[in-house]
Design goal:
mainly beta, Jelly Rolls, 3% helix
Length: 233
């Protein structure tokens, strides 16, 4: 969904030096509690600051062909809403339930699909110059077979694609959290430290939420996410 156009203005007002990369405040994941939602086109509603496969740039999986793998849920850990994402079968394949705060390139062949930051299009990138210590949040998970939900966070300073080994030189820090195949019918907290690969500050942040293990995603696996937060020392 559209990243708010005044993100950088807010950053400056809060004391973040966007140009120098020096953080005087503590930036957070935008709409990490999934309280704000908006209609991107008729009948398609997404959480503000997040994008789904209904918003891909690939004609092969865009709009009509892409399944709706997410929904607003009133099963919330706090506040009024959370987000519910589910793996669904479509056109002979299992579409991984996924949301991201950046851009999505979607193909029928999942090996050719990826997420990426697109600074040329508001709503498909997240400016970020801080260096948080860890990422945390709450989830409910009902996996099928040996599926595993995932949370991926990447801080970077240049072009990247996920997956994409050829762009690792632009990684500043990040973590992939595998939430495992154990069902959790009530809210459970996850938390993981963020390893850093460079001493510099990032320019952008990518967050990916998934209800399945990408290429091995199993139809029906369902995850709820709420209260995504960055933790600072």
């Amino acid at each position: 969904m559209r990243t708010l156009l005044f993100t950088i203005t807010l950053a400056v007002a809060a004391g973040w030096s966007v140009t120098s990369g020096t953080a005087f405040g503590q930036q957070q994941i935008s709409n990490g509690g999934f309280e704000a939602w908006e209609e991107i086109r008729s009948g398609v509603e997404e959480p503000v600051s997040w994008n789904s496969i209904k918003n891909t740039d690939g004609s092969g999986m865009n709009k009509s062909l892409a399944p709706t793998v997410w929904e607003r849920s009133e099963t919330a850990h706090s506040g009024k809403y959370s987000v519910r994402i589910t793996n669904k079968s479509v056109i002979g394949m299992v579409a991984n339930g996924m949301l991201t705060n950046c851009a999505i390139h979607g193909e029928k062949d999942k090996t050719k699909s990826y997420v990426y930051t697109d600074p040329s299009k508001p709503g498909f990138y997240a400016p970020f110059v801080s260096r948080p210590d860890s990422v945390a949040g709450w989830y409910i998970y009902t996996p099928e077979e040996n599926d595993s939900a995932m949370v991926v966070l990447l801080l970077h300073d240049g072009k990247v694609t996920l997956p994409g080994k050829n762009t690792k030189s632009n990684w500043v820090g990040g973590v992939k959290i595998m939430l495992g195949a154990t069902p959790h019918g009530t809210w459970k907290r996850f938390s993981a430290p963020i390893p850093y690969f460079k001493g510099s500050s990032p320019k952008y942040m990518i967050v990916v939420l998934s209800s399945g293990n990408r290429m091995k995603a199993v139809e029906g696996s369902t995850a709820y996410f709420d209260e995504l937060k960055l933790v600072y020392k």
